Amino acid sequence: MNRAPSPMSYLLPRSAWGVLALAALSAGCAASAPAPSPAPAASAPRADAQFPTTPPAIGPAPALQLPSPETRTLANGLKVMYVRMPELPVVSAALVTPAGSTHDPANLPGLASFTASMLDEGAGGRDPLQLAEALDLLGARLSTGAGWDAAQVNLYVLRRNLPEALGLMADVAVRPDFPAKEVTRVRDERIVELTRSRDLPAAVAGNAFQALVFGSKHPYGRLSTTQAVRGMDRSRLVQFHRSRYRPDQSTLILVGDVEPASVQPLVEQAFGGWKANGAAPAFDAASLAAPEIARTTVYVVDKPGAAQSVIRIGHPGVARNTPDYFPLMVLNTLLGGSFTSRLNQNLRETHGYTYGAGSSFQMRRGAGPFSAQAEVVSAKTDSAMIEFFRELNRIRSEPIPADELERAKRYLALGFPQDLETTSDVAQQMAGLVTYDLSPGFLAEYVPRVLAVTAEDVRRVANQYIRPDRAVVVVVGDRASIEPTLRALNLGEVQVRPVEEFVKD
């Protein structure tokens, strides 16, 4: 994960401002205050009382001991996964169903996300306010959303309130009302957001990169448009929900104070009446095949007068089920996945071109994109591009120093336990494993497999999965000032594209 710095990091912490204010106040009062009595001379500080000069030694990565999930299945096909963590009387639940953006109809991109966002806008006969009040009375939190490959309904509640909360969760997931009034409101909000994104260079760059890497016929390359959103009425949402939200393709994950023998009847009561509508819709896995990029091309999207250039460099990467997952995680940490990564140290710390630079592999059911990105001061766009390609080539060609490799592995291994701190964290990790058909044992294997990655592994996957000579380069910025210098770099053909191509009505 790239942890890009914020401009706010340059501000003094609140406590420091208090110290400065106190010092200023004391100085201002000194002229009128009586002279203080002489203080006794302070003794010289002892050498062993000085601040330490070396950082503490980093201990070994902790061994993770997670409870093994227990899975049961309802008569309607709904899988129920129990993960017992009874230390606190709480339960986190996640209902995972294959209704993500990959399943959008070709002519209605954004339908899956719209449908998921509408689930809690009225359900089971309650309007949005009544539903929110019912959850508040239980002290429960509920959220809905859709990613690329799955939609989720998430719940967090005290164990004693689980029976009522599960009923509300089932209403939201199984019996959404899709009130026409709320559909219109949310649809209008989405149209405003799409229209506004035309003025957001980062949004334009994200759309352009997605469209140019994958193409309009690929599920990952289709862009939501205001015209498509206007065509999403209540009937469209109902139809998508009926076809995609099915018990026989869904999994309910329950983490926390959950004893299967006592909780399973509650699940039966809440979700047992959920019925699938017809046969499961077919999905063409071949539609996720990654396109080939023959050569590097630079695409300039003009934003006249822009003070910064938004840069995206990349190409199709890998699917989530890749056997090279762990070497790729270490590789990306070295390249652009942490504050001390090469890209951030080069473009931010050494050259001062940006507040933050990074890279990522977005792993999905199909091969999602690999990208390296930053927002750089406009006058240094060409210089930043040189450094980007220097690092992309260096990670492939030069040996990885042993100490740098060790830091990257420890960054991942020592940081992983914080992703499993709460019942909600564990539920989300399990949801990811369910979505991509991965073994629950993956979580216990994570740390040792990260630590087992070698420099040769990193070099191999860098050469296999990072392709600077066959990349899409998107630069959103002031064309008049950046196009001539980008052409002079000779990275590849330079094409100019209008903003309207990537933020469509």
Could you describe the 3D structure shown?
This protein has 505 residues and is an alpha+beta fold. The protein has helices spanning 14-29, 111-118, 128-138, 162-174, 180-197, 201-214, 226-230, 234-244, 260-271, 325-335, 342-350, 381-397, 402-415, 423-435, 442-451, 455-465, 479-489; strands spanning 70-73, 79-84, 90-97, 141-146, 151-158, 251-256, 297-302, 308-316, 354-361, 369-377, 472-477, 493-497. The chain has 17 helices and twelve strands. The strands form two sheets. Strands 1-2-6-3-5-4 form a six-stranded mixed sheet, sandwiched between helices. Strands 9-10-8-11-7-12 form a six-stranded mixed sheet, with helices on both faces. The longest helix has 18 residues, at 180-197. The chain is globular. Mean pLDDT is 90; it is low at 1-40.
In short, what is this structure?
With 505 residues, the chain is of the alpha+beta class. The protein has 17 helices and 12 strands.
* Average predicted local confidence, pLDDT: 90
Question: Beta-strand percentage?
Answer: 15-25%
Residue share in helix: 40-55%
Spell the H/E element sequence: HEEEHHEEHHHHHEHEEHHEEHHHHHEHE
Write the layout of secondary structure elements.
Layout: H1 14-29, E1 70-73, E2 79-84, E3 90-97, H2 111-118, H3 128-138, E4 141-146, E5 151-158, H4 162-174, H5 180-197, H6 201-214, H7 226-230, H8 234-244, E6 251-256, H9 260-271, E7 297-302, E8 308-316, H10 325-335, H11 342-350, E9 354-361, E10 369-377, H12 381-397, H13 402-415, H14 423-435, H15 442-451, H16 455-465, E11 472-477, H17 479-489, E12 493-497
Parallel strand pairs: 2-6, 7-11, 7-12
Antiparallel strand pairs: 1-2, 3-5, 3-6, 4-5, 8-10, 8-11, 9-10
Helix pairs in contact: 2-8, 4-9, 10-13, 10-16, 11-12, 12-17, 13-15
